[in-house]
Amino acid sequence: MDIVRNDNDALNATITVKVTPEDYEANVEKTLKEQQKKAEIKGFRKGKVPMGIMKKLYGTSVLVDEVNKVVSNNLYKYIVDNNIDILGEPLPNETEQAEVDWKKDKEFSFSYDIGLSPEINIDATEDTKVKRYPIIVSDEMIDNGIEMHARRFGENKEVEEVADNDLLRGDFVELARVNPKKDGIQKDNVAIALEYMKDEEIKKQFIGAKAGETIDFDLKKAYPNLSDLASLLDVKKEEIEEANSKFRFTIKEISRFESHEVNQELFDKVYGEGTVKSEEEFRAKIKEEIESQVAGDVDYKLGLDIKELLQEQADFELPEAFLKRWLVLANKDFTKESVEENFENYAKEIKWQLIKAKIAKENELKVNPEDIKALAKTFALTQFRQYGIMDVPEEHLEQYANQMMQNQQEVQKLHERVEEQKVLDFIKSKVTLEDKEVTVEEFNKMFEE
Length: 449
Prior knowledge:
This protein has 449 residues and is an alpha+beta fold. It contains 15 helices and twelve strands. It folds into three domains: 2-116, Trigger factor ribosome-binding domain (Alpha-Beta Plaits, 2-Layer Sandwich), CATH 3.30.70; 131-144 and 267-446, Orthogonal Bundle (Trigger factor, domain 2); 155-258, Chitinase A, domain 3 (Roll). A hairpin with a 2-residue loop joins strand 7 (167-176) and strand 8. The longest helix is centred in the middle third of the chain and has 36 residues, at 279-314.
């Protein structure tokens, strides 16, 4: 066995592995003997096929397998033993590889291209200044938060007269001109929402109407989605397509959604009895929650800026030609054209992974199971709060986190997020952060530039 490394430049090298019979013959013989014990060939008892016939039938395929194993194992052993920091995986060399004759050759030589990890220099110190953009929580944002809670605990109440966006319940009947159509569509106790009615003129026909009144209108014009209409009237779509547009609706019930009054009852429903005792405290609590929510957005923006800063500081090259080949071979959905088109984005991500790994390794930033579980709980809490559930019992968060931890793909994603956050937190502790407060509109505009 002879392994030689040849550096083409600072980022590319070729490793040639030369194999002699001494490296593979014993394994070939061993494998053929194992197959001989199981071989069933017509004219011979099981396990009694002569070795000469075994070699004739299976010798070449076994040779190929065993040589490939020897080459692969020793190639990776050489890389590990010599502390060669590579990108991707070794790829068969496309120019120096000699043609192999498996039936005649006894010695084999295989050449592999490797992409070398570049030298990375990072200089993030207190002299490095990074802007952070805390979001100002405005009264409008607090008002919207109050309205969200009020609507969450609101309810539909029966009213006497139809107004805009009310919910009506009543009976439908298909018309033939002005009278009910014989064998036409009829459906009782149907709920319709004026909010989703598409024609404003038809909607005006309903405004001011009372229970017991009837209204004739073009149903297909009011609600043009025929699939939705078919579901509404509990008929097949083909029946709606063939039906007349004119329907009569007899109003049986009118209900209107009313948000919950902002009072002590609402405070108790949102935060638990006695936690909040005045509207002033309610606003302060909501402001605190909004600040917590937008802090994640602020931190996300800061993380993007730190990534960009570190990439600018490091300013290193990659073995681009090698990586393009590797991306195509390593991803079945990638093509040369798609990799070429998107390589700038791939390169940025690869560079960030290299920077992150270097910082984590040099500063011993470890990820432990407790870190992963804590992040899973944070994700769970965020999801609950998106549905307006602010006070989530710890046992529910624990249960949700445990479910996530059963999925290895989720665990890997969480691991990567935790590692990235540890690296970003480490950099934040080293640089000088300069805060500049902005409105939520100004903050969102930064992502449009």
